[in-house]
Amino acid sequence: MVLSMHGCGEKHRKEHKEMDYRELIKELDLTKLPRHVGIIMDGNGRWAKQHHRPRLLGHRAGVKATRLAVELADEVNIQVLTMFAFSTENWSRPQSEIDGLMKLLREFMHKEVIELNRKNVHLSILGSPDKVNPKLWKEIYETAAITSRNTGLKFNIAFNYGSRQEIVEGIKALYKAASVDRSLIQNLSPEKFSDYLYTTGLPDPDLIIRTSGESRLSNFMMWQAAYAEIIISPVLWPDFSKFEFVKVLLEYQKRNRRFGGI
């Protein structure tokens, strides 16, 4: 009987939270939303520790939060959503955790791509193939390509991504192109250099969200985030609901963006 009541209580709380987010979303000015939101999804390990679970179950719980964030971004018509899933520094983690994360990525891609395609979401991978199993890299790119003609939300998964590596690769690409056309160096500008980065063709992020209360970029979009508003949420990523996402968007709309001016 106690278990039954607890289950009902959980169901009621979830329904109440859903209602709260729908009420809160009415406060948004839909004409002043960020075009591009980047999210550093942090806190899976601490969430698992708090719940006395293995770290990998924390990452699995984070997949649900990822799905909710994509749904919310699509719902309010944000143009671009980039989520930091695996960094170039994450290879230093235990091999068992890395293997589990690769498995989760594969599962996410295959389970979600049909729904993303149905919702007209364009899925892309931002990152380097270095150190990634070539078979996995080919698989995730081919899976993402299913959505390549979609014209709705641009959803980017930053996988094996590091901003410093991205910039170095951009310099190499520019150097190669300039060996054929020297004017590329003479006419180089910050805007033109952006064409050599993974995010070519995308607007710079207006908003970077980091969950779990940590206050650093962790090598995420350091070039692109030059004038992004950065909002730190104390919520661990697996608990980052649509309600929490809307709260952050409301906070963003209170900011006075000056871009270096007065």
Q: Which short descriptors sum up this protein?
A:
9 helices; alpha/beta; about 15% strand; about 260 residues; Undecaprenyl pyrophosphate synthetase; 6 strands; globular; six-stranded parallel beta sheet
Short description:
Helix 4 (95-118) packs parallel to helix 5.
Task: Explain the layout of strands and helices.
Layout: H1 2-24, E1 36-40, H2 44-50, H3 55-75, E2 80-87, H4 95-118, E3 122-126, H5 134-145, E4 154-161, H6 163-178, H7 183-186, H8 190-193, E5 207-210, E6 229-232, H9 242-254
Parallel strand pairs: 1-2, 1-5, 2-4, 3-4, 5-6
Helix pairs in contact: 1-9, 2-3, 3-4, 4-5
What does this structure look like?
There is one protein chain. This protein is α/β, with parallel strands linked by helices and 262 residues long. The protein has a domain at 32-161 and 206-254: Undecaprenyl pyrophosphate synthetase, CATH 3.40.1180.10. It has helices spanning 2-24, 44-50, 55-75, 95-118, 134-145, 163-178, 183-186, 190-193, 242-254; strands spanning 36-40, 80-87, 122-126, 154-161, 207-210, 229-232. Strands 3-4-2-1-5-6 form a 6-stranded parallel beta sheet, with helices on both faces. Strand 3, helix 5 (134-145) and strand 4 (154-161) form a beta-alpha-beta unit. Helix 3 (55-75) packs parallel to helix 4. The protein is globular and about 55 Å long. The N and C termini lie far apart (63 Å).
List the helices and strands in order.
Answer: HEHHEHEHEHHHEEH
Name the poorly predicted regions.
Answer: 1-13
- Strand residues, percent: 5-15%
Helix proportion: 40-55%
Radius of gyration: 20 Å
